[in-house]
Amino acid sequence: MFELALPTPIWINTSAGLKRLADKLEQQPRIAVDTEANSLYVYRERVCLIQFSVPGADFLVDPLALADLSPLEKIFSSPRIEKIFHAADYDLYGLNHDFGFTFANLYDTMIAAHTLGYTALGLNALVLRYFGIELDKHYQKANWGERPLSPEQIDYARFDTHYLLALRDRLDEDLREQDRWQLAHEDFVRCAHVLLHNGDPRERWERINGHLDLDARQRTILHELCLFRERMAEKLDHPLFKVISDALLLEIARRAPATLEELAETGLSERQTQRFGRALLESVHRGQTAQLVRLTAPEKASEAFILRLKRLKAWRKETALALEVESDVILPRTTLQAIAVENPHTPAALAKIMAEAPWRLEKYGAEILKTLSMRYTESEQSFELRGAEK
Question: Who contacts 236 (Cβ-Cβ below 8 Å, separation ≥6)?
Answer without folding.
Answer: 43, 243
